[in-house]
Amino acid sequence: MTIEVRKMTGACGAEVLGVDLTKLSNSDMETVRQTYADYGVVFFRDQQLTPQDHIAFARRWGDIVVNKFFTPTENPEIAEVRKEKEQTTNIGGGWHTDHSYDVEPAMGSVLVARNLPEEGGDTLFASMYAAYDALSPGLKTTLEGMRAVHSNAHVFGAAGVYKSSDQGGGFKGENLVSDATHPVVITHPMSGRKALYVNPGFTLHFEGWTFQESRPLLDYLFAHAVKPEFTCRFRWQPGSVAFWDNRATWHYAANDYHGHQRLMHRITIAGGPLN
To answer: Do the domain assignments include residue 252?
Structure first.
């Protein structure tokens, strides 16, 4: 099979075609690695991954982070991202990047489709490379050197949004909430490019600024970062796999399939400090 990289949009995401993730050669792995670094999220079609295959592919990238909030499968390394037919709240139904609330945020996540609705349930992605590049020189200068506070308490905590929803019974570890502070602009460790590193899901305020002072600028950045020209949309099919970079993208799980189950398996890969 001949590997082919097909860009999804001008700024965000690429499909890698002609590969079997259970038999990925070192040469093809380098192509996938470069595509991941360049486009922030890579998509694969027609894969038949067992849980063991899923784990093996993830381990080629780094250590696995065992999720402390989601329900695990029989394999602790794999977390369920599940919405049942009777539920109205989904997981990830707002723009965010995973684990920005950790001192060493996760590198990325490998999501495998297991049970899909006939329609709906797409995932949208936004490039934080493109969002940063499109900022004015003056705003780039302002943001350089700034840091922002991230937290998960308002999402996963005992009084968080999930606990008060019909997803509440599926979450654990509400006593494990955490906060972290990171640069607002990071240099990506793989690509060397600069990326915007704040997100609506977990960023609360700028370090040294009050919530009220931070809100106007954060709101501007949040709206700017999801301009259509920075985004792509992935339609899931049986055998689909998405591998996104938490340091270079946001994502959003569309919640448009009420009355149908959607079950995904997610593995998160450890990262490191951001600079």
So the answer is: yes
